[in-house]
Design goal:
Length: 835
């Protein structure tokens, strides 16, 4: 089948058929955003970003259809399209869903039949992550005057900022594009790409086609649709080798278009801003509000002594007359603003309550959030011409805009500054004194006093909306000291001593989703809301971690066929009977195959049981989110339930959960989906995986590192951010080859297979800072291979030495910040220990 391009009648003028395409994006590529471009999410100047795109498109004559292309589920746009169709009745709006990332050019080509329907001669392409005045009619006039094949919208920025964007070199007289370079390494022009285009249909599709052909002799990134309702072939007339190319207009197409001599730039002198992060919505809001004020928009609130324009207040919002708002403030539907409140340079979303005398500056307040009396939620202003929303504070890059996620609660007199708070967080006044730990303990001094570079082990790690101050994690350590699933003072002492000394992430022990999912009767649990609250509830340890400016994670687990045993100091592999609180008759697994003769024989989970298990898992994750944890990890290792489904050693099923690799990994992938559904987009999801059963020597079928690498790729597509690589635990016949860092080789094999698609950590007999640095950097005699990793986990070493982070820093000869209460005693007093 050949590509059918309509003949372009150059005499048609402005009446020629025109369409518009809005690229609304793929969420994994925008994982740090607050979904500002999605209808119903963050709004600027009272409307979602896409609404501003449609408003501009509606002003162009003869546009009758707009195609929105993106990865989001169709249901996300259903209500928005309905409302937009009422507001813009002259325009038909359709949504075209990608099931894999195809790139900006790849998406256009994939949906070319829909775009070409009605035989348009040209079409606009608008990236939804930009805000500007969208001078589309001016671009159209230039297109017609120059008999162009393509027109790009450009704007001028500073030389320092230009290299962060695509740069355009043009003829100042004719406005023809001479060269286009995406993010050049050296300065070539301060005229940059605004992400808005007008293409001739007879030019752009053959250009994309040509780019595909050029790739046949060089490495490509290929993706395949995961749904049968996509077209069966990306290129219907081509072989498998050219299916589903990831192609980008900026990197792959625009440079070649410049050679056509019919590529022109329209330079806007008006405002422009890219919205790549949630914080970018605040300056975008200011730009749109200022434009609305210039044009005399009636949507804006009338200026007064307490309304400093421009300000948008939704008609359903209630603002106390004594509150002072502006400039550049948007107040959403059903918001309540109390007496004496001050709001400046901020977006307040739906159903927020702000109590009296609170102060909101340079911030976004998420849906259904509450801000207490005299509280302060504030960011830091950045230069007007800046294109970043981050600043460096105490040597650490932080958000300049403070963001509260959905349903956050800020207590009375609490101050929140320069941070992103994940949804459902409760930020209260701590009922005890603690000095501010800023920067947090475990942060490397930057620059180092001696000027030496900071080793990778102590470099920050950003994962979605979370930044760890170093790359050392407390591995989950079962304490077997809980009572009916509730934590006890032991846990507070054990975890508190480690948290205060600054690992980048502290992970609490395997926490069971069901009573029968515990390893022992003394395991911690999260099957009840009561486990979250209370004197020693999960929320208490979370609040302590956050009071110390530290990050905390929870490992969610089900013990499967290894459940109902006693604490290991009472005996290894000893069954816990009913007399000691066990449940040997209610142990569950993939098949009726016991771990060994000492363990109970599990009951095989039925399909209905599996559905109930998934519901319980989702409920547990939801509780963990509400408790305020920063990260959730799925326990998929050490012979427990999910691992036992992976391995043919323990999984003898013949239904859709057993047999083939695809069937054995099915439950793991479904649990990931269930977990991700209950988690905010900005919250990282980890998964601990046993890379091998250590049974290769036997010649029998078992779980191997090759299958782990294969699964890792699937996990990255489902929303897992980091793979916590361990090994073994599924068979008493395992033959583990121990030694220093003995599991790091597995982690490196998997990292090599997945590359940048997934973060990977190593754990196991990592005992010194130099060894940890060698493993994570892939350099040195102890590196266990040249592949770099992303995080190092340690368990027993923290059990022995809660100050492990400080010891590892000294081992590497670097200076780190330490909690005030600990640090002061080492400030040069006589007799202070020296190393």
């Amino acid at each position: 089948m050949s590509l059918q391009i309509p003949h372009r009648d150059k005499a048609n003028g402005a009446s020629a058929a025109t369409k518009a395409v809005i690229l609304v994006g793929w969420w994994p590529l925008k994982r740090n955003s607050i979904q500002a471009i999605v209808p119903g999410s963050a709004k600027v100047a009272g409307h979602p970003i896409i609404w501003h795109c449609l408003t501009a498109i509606a002003k162009v004559p003869h546009i009758q259809e707009v195609c929105m292309i993106g990865y989001y589920d169709e249901s996300v746009f259903r209500d928005f399209i309905k409302d937009a169709s009422t507001e813009f009745p002259q325009i038909k709006i359709v949504y075209l869903r990608e099931y894999q990332a195809l790139g900006t050019a790849g998406g256009l080509y994939h949906f070319r039949d829909a775009i070409l329907k009605g035989k348009p001669e040209r079409f606009f392409v608008l990236n939804a992550d930009v805000c500007c005045s969208f001078p589309l009619n001016d671009m159209l006039k230039l297109f017609e005057d120059k008999d162009a094949e393509a027109v790009i919208l450009g704007t001028r920025v500073s030389e320092d900022a230009a290299s962060n964007f695509g740069c355009i070199v043009s003829d100042a007289h004719t406005r023809r594009v001479l060269h286009y370079v995406e993010k050049p390494e050296s300065h070539i022009s301060n005229l940059i790409n605004c992400g808005v285009y007008l293409f001739s249909t007879e030019c752009i599709f053959p250009s994309i086609r040509s780019a595909i052909k050029k790739r046949t002799d060089r490495p490509r990134l290929v993706s395949y649709p995961s749904s049968e309702n996509l077209e069966s072939s990306y290129f219907q007339d081509d072989d498998e080798e050219t299916k589903n190319e990831v192609l980008r207009l900026e990197q792959d197409i625009l440079s070649d278009l410049a050679d056509s001599k019919q590529f022109f730039v329209y330079e806007t002198k008006d405002f422009w801003r890219q919205i790549k992060t949630a914080g970018s919505a605040v300056p975008a809001n200011a730009l749109y509000l200022q434009k609305a004020m210039q044009t005399g928009s009636k949507e804006l609130a009338k200026p007064s002594a307490n309304i400093l324009p421009p300000v948008f207040i939704h008609p359903t919002a209630h603002v106390d007359p004594t509150a002072k708002l502006g400039p550049n403030v948007s107040i959403g539907p059903r918001v309540t603003v109390g007496a004496g409140v001050r709001i400046k340079e901020a977006i307040v979303l739906e159903d927020v309550e702000i109590k009296h005398d609170a102060c909101i500056l340079y911030a976004i307040i998420g849906w259904n959030s509450r801000v207490g009396a005299w509280a302060r939620v504030e960011g830091t202003p950045t230069p007007v011409n800046s294109h970043t929303t981050s600043i460096v504070k105490n040597g650490v890059k932080v958000q300049s805009i403070t963001i509260l996620g959905k349903e956050c609660g800020v207590g009375d007199e609490v101050r929140v500054q320069n941070c992103v708070c994940l949804p459902f967080k409760e930020l209260k006044r701590i009922p005890y004194f603690t000095p501010a730990q800023e920067p947090p303990s475990g942060t490397a001094s930057d620059p180092q006093p001696d000027g030496k570079p900071i080793p990778k082990l102590f470099q920050p790690l950003k994962i979605r909306g979370l930044t760890l101050q170093n790359r050392i994690m407390l591995s989950p350590l079962c304490q077997y000291s809980a009572q009916d699933g509730h934590l006890t003072p032991w846990h507070m002492a054990h975890l508190g001593g480690i948290i205060s000394r600054g690992p980048g992430l502290t992970m609490i022990e395997a926490t069971a989703i069901l009573p029968e999912g515990r390893i022992t009767p003394q395991d911690s649990g999260i099957w009840s809301d009561k486990h979250v609250e209370g004197e020693y509830g999960l929320r208490r340890i979370v609040e302590f971690a956050h009071s110390q400016n530290q990050k905390i994670a929870i490992q969610i687990a089900h013990a499967g066929r290894k459940a109902s045993t006693v604490a290991p100091w009472l005996g290894m592999d000893v069954l816990a009977t009913e007399e000691v609180g066990g449940w040997p008759s209610n142990v569950r697994g993939p098949s009726a195959v016991p771990y060994n003769e000492e363990h109970a024989t599990p009951k095989e989970l039925s399909l209905d049981d599996i559905e109930e298990l998934k519901k319980a898992w989702g409920a547990a994750v939801k509780r963990a989110v509400k408790a305020g944890f920063d990260v959730i990890e799925i326990h998929n290792a050490h012979g427990y339930l999910l691992h036992s489904f992976l391995s043919p050693v323990s999984n003898k099923r013949t239904d859709r959960y057993g047999g083939s690799f695809e069937n054995r990994v099915r439950l793991t992938l479904e649990i990931v989906e269930v977990s991700r559904k209950e988690m905010p987009e900005s919250m990282p999801l980890f998964l601990r995986l046993s890379a091998s059963d250590w049974l290769e020597y036997s010649g029998k079928e078992s779980w191997t590192v090759e299958e782990s690498a294969k699964l890792a790729s699937l996990l990255s597509e489902k929303g897992v951010d980091l793979l916590d690589v361990s090994s073994g635990g599924n068979s008493p016949g395992q033959k583990i080859k121990g030694g220093p860092g003995y599991q790091a080789g597995f982690a490196k094999t998997i990292k090599k297979a997945v590359g940048d698609k997934l973060l990977v950590s190593a754990v196991g007999t990592i005992t010194s800072g130099k060894q940890a640095q060698a493993i994570i950097s892939g350099e040195g005699e102890q590196s266990m291979g040249s592949e770099e990793l992303d995080l190092i986990a340690a368990g027993r070493m923290f059990q022995k030495n809660p100050g492990l982070v400080w010891d590892w820093a000294e081992d590497l000869g670097i200076q780190i910040n330490v909690a005030n209460q600990i640090r002061w005693g080492f400030g040069g007093r006589p007799g202070a220990p020296k190393k």
